[in-house]
Structure formats: structure tokens, C-alpha cells
Design goal:
Blueprint lengths: L1 H16 L7 E8 L5 E10 L6 E3 L2 E14 L2 E14 L10 E10 L4 E9 L5 E7 L13 E3 L2 E3 L9 E2 L2 E3 L6 E3 L5 E9 L7 E10 L2 E11 L4 E9 L6 E10 L6 E11 L12 H8 L5 H4 L7 H14 L10 H16 L10 H9 L4 E6 L10 E7 L5 E6 L8 E6 L10 H5 L10
Parallel strand pairs: 13-19
Antiparallel strand pairs: 1-2, 2-6, 3-4, 4-5, 4-7, 7-8, 9-14, 10-12, 11-12, 14-17, 15-16, 15-18, 18-19, 20-21, 21-22, 22-23
Helix pairs in contact: 2-4, 5-6
Length: 441
Amino acid sequence: MKKAIIIIFITLFFALLFSEQLPVSVDLNRFLDDASNTIFDINYQLPYNSLGFEKTDSGFAAGLKVEYSISKDGKIVNQGDFTNKLIFPNQEMTRSGKLFRDKLSVTLPRSVYTMHISFTDIHSSINSSWSKKFVILQKDSFLSDLEFSSNIVSDTTNYLENFHRDDQLFFVNCNHIYTKGEVDSLYLYYELGNMRFPVGTLYEKINIIKDDDTVKVIINELNCRGSKVPQMRKIDISYLGEGYHNIIIEVTDPISNAVNKTEDYFSIKKKNASNYRLFVNLEDEIMLLKYFLPSAKTKIWKDLTDEGKLKFIDKFWEINDLDTFPKKNEFYELIRKRIQYCNEHYSHFKDGWNTDRGRIYIKFGKPDDILCYDTGLTTKYAQKKYEIWKYRVHYNYTYLFLDFQTNGNYKLIYSDNDPNESSSPHMEDYLGEDFDMGLLD
């Protein structure tokens, strides 16, 4: 059953990936409160580079609107919304495949409710949704669901309070996917609770199963006192094979012989081989990377060995990967296709990817609007063609390219809102006094 669920999930993921929907991963986990009600923790995550950022006075800003509703028997009994606001001082993080995470919690006494959540990028209006029928934990259960993480740090402050677990900042891994060779251990968090009598020693058995074979068994004695006892486990997965794994935790009370069991899954994927070469010449590789990286990040290039340069290239593509299911690096594939397009359409005496139009197209993709005109009669030069490119869905950028030598090699002479591009001080001489500045709005 679990394998069927993960196959369905993978299918749904690819459907989202290749359609105009946000790649949001959601993970639901249940815990009991002191009154034996079920707390439903809904964690969600998505890459920063899947959101549309706009330049503001404070930096580059994006927003993820979250709308939720809880229904019973088809009628909405509670609903609300909020917006996750993200602001970065520069563009580097906006292009990153690193993950934004947040969570919301709902406490319910019964299992007759359904929750629906809609996630919307406020700048592009691209969205996705998630629905789930809530099933409560049994009131006599003393074992919660499992939370997974590969990244925890000690933290007793109030920073990211929602992600605190037993004085640890516990970043939940919503998709339960781990990359072979990059992550050697996974962390599990669960709670023992709802204990109505003094409890001494309990026995914990952790089974990890792959292809119906048990590949790991861990047995612990738990000395438990109190109404809620948090449990944190670090599990070595470095020697496990690639693929899908079931994980089952059983906790037994030897006095009453009561046994509680919880089951979940995780998957180990193969690390992508180093095949991030788009050009024969390594210097072309760094020229491309400079489209995306600030000079402070690329100044070490000249001091690297060829092996070091290859590692530098690999690191760039891996950081910008979506960090999800596909075996291929989706960001790498996207840029490769953009380079191919530029070489087919903008090559005039030099490869199209290495032209001004190519640089902008590779960074931001197809413009939302392109205007093509000839310069007026009041210029100091012969009449020439120019193009105005406008990006308005994910960005608020405007560029003007002029065909100086009337040979198709357009040069950038005007840029608006993009701090990494500049405008020519002679723009009016090139375009003429009668140029309509309203075309740039």
C-alpha cells in the first residue's frame, strides 16, 4: 500500500513540475495534546527559485499566500489565510533551489473533518493545492506520527519556534527523499504521550524494510516519566541502498503488554553524476556562471585547478537544483534549453548565448512582451532596428536592444529595475529625440 502511495505521489509531482503549478511539498503528522485531542501539524516547503521576486526599496520580495478551509459534512466550519513574505537584499538567494519552509497546526477532537489548502505565488498567481481527510490518533494511543529531517541544530531561542523539537531546530523534510553520498544520517522525532499511569521502562523496536526484507533493526530501552515524552533518533543510512524504505516503530509496555506501532517511509536517491558541462571550453562555463553569480563568488576561478573548476561548476548546478524527485537537475536542463534557443535565434558572428539578448534570455527566459521598431529620423546615426523586452509576471524588468551594425547583433542600451545591467548614457542619440519613452512602461 505504501509503495502504491509513493508511486502516486511521484506521478502527481511530475504532473505539477511540468504544468503551471507551484512545486509545494506537504507533510502531515499527528500528535496528541494533554486532553487526548489530535494535533495535526502540516509542514510545507518549496524552492525559492519557484517564486516570483520583485525589486523593491527593501530588496527582492516575494510572497506565498496560504488559504485554508476546514469542512465537515461538506460545510466549511473554519477558514482563513495568511501570506509568507520573503525579502532578500540581493538576487542570489532568489535563484537558489534552497527550500523555504513553514507549518500550520490544527487541533481536532474527531475525524470527520477535511482540510483544503491553496498555495499561491502573489506575483505570478501560479498556485497549487492540497487536501486531506483528517484521521485522529486513537485516544488510548501513546505513540505519535514520525517527523523526518536531515538538518537539526541546537537552539533554545525563540527563533523559528514552530520548528523547535526538544531544544532542537528541527527542519522537517516534507518529501522524505535523501541523496546517496550527501546525507549519511536521518533524524526522526516522535512523542510518547497520553500516559495515565506512572511508566518506567518501555521497549522500542525500529525496523527498516526494503523490498520486503528487513535491512536494519534497532532496539532501545526507554525510561519514560511524564505525560509527554519527546523522542529523537539519529539513524545511519549511509550503507543503505537506493530506493524506497519502510520504517516501522513499535513501542511496548512490558507490564500491560500494550503495543503501539507507527509506520512511515523514506527514499534514497542516487547522486547525479558529474555531467554539468555545457561547453568544451571551461572558460565558457565560467562566463555562463557569471550571468548568475556576483563577482565575489567567481573571483577564485583563476586560482583553481581544472579539477577544482569542475567541482565549482558542479556545486553551482547542485545548489540551484530543485532538490526534489527528478534524477535530472531541472535547473541545468532549463538553462541548457535556453542556450540552445539562443544559439538558434541570436547567433550573429558569435554564439547566441554569448550575446546581450542571449544573456538576458538565459537568465530570465522568454520575455512576456517583445516590441520591435525602427529608430526615428532625428537620431545622429542611420536608422536601425531595436527591440524592447518586458518581463512582468515573475519580474518587473525592461530592456532595450539596438542593432548597431544592422547585422542582427543587438546590443543592450537600456535596462530598468535590473541592478546587474546598465543603460547607455547615449541612448537618446541612438534612438532620437522623438523616441516615445512610454514604450518602456
